[in-house]
Design a protein that fits this description.
Shape: globular
Radius of gyration: 16 Å
CATH architecture: 3-Layer(aba) Sandwich
Number of domains: 1
Number of strands: 7
Mean pLDDT: 80
Helix content: 25-40%
CATH topology: Aminopeptidase
Low-confidence stretches: 159-172
Largest sheet: 7 strands, mixed
Structural class: alpha+beta
Strand order of the largest sheet: 1-2-3-4-5-7-6
Number of helices: 4
Length: 172
């Protein structure tokens, strides 16, 4: 299955809320719309920030992540991803792969030296978490400071020091 990843469009805002609310039930529609207004205001002020959605077709949003860029002493600028939400796919790995590749492309286009991802707690003890974590590790990310991060221009390093080691016991 292929996915179209693009910036959240005005006509998709309420459809995206359905996905957000499914994964974060504490977020009501008013809070979501306030968040959208904050992101739009920051973008208008020149701050590099956005909301990306993944769709397998025109009417269905199955993935979403929010992003911003942050200055970094180590990497000059980091592409930071929050609110990573992926749902509705029987086989989630192609969706994860498409979303990760989109993050990389956006980060490179914005001149970032690394991508850093904060995963929501809902992924901590599920099969989907293992698949998601494995997808990030397969793309060269490492677990560092309780965040998944990959630096560009450096060879991929797997957790635990051994190539291909994906064991949660190897995560420090």
């Amino acid at each position: 299955m292929t996915f179209d990843l693009h910036d959240l469009r005005a006509q998709e805002r309420d459809r995206a809320y359905v996905l957000v609310h499914l994964m974060k039930p504490e977020v009501d529609l008013t809070r979501w719309r306030g968040f959208l207004a904050d992101v739009a205001g920051q973008c208008a002020a020149g701050i590099e920030r956005g909301i990306t959605v993944a769709t397998p077709g025109e009417d269905c949003i199955v993935g979403l992540f929010t992003w911003s860029t942050q200055p970094s002493l180590e990497h000059t600028k980091v592409f930071t991803v929050d609110n990573f939400i992926a749902a509705g796919a029987l086989d989630p790995e192609p969706l994860f792969d498409a979303m990760i590749k989109d993050m990389d492309a956006r980060a490179h286009a914005l001149g970032c030296g690394a991508v850093q991802i904060s995963l929501p707690n809902l992924y901590t003890s599920t099969k989907q978490h293992r698949l998601l974590q494995d997808s990030f590790l397969d793309h060269g990310f490492i677990v560092a400071d309780q965040k998944l991060r990959r630096s560009f221009g450096e060879p991929p390093v797997k957790c635990g020091g051994a190539p291909g080691n994906k064991s949660p016991d190897a995560l420090h």
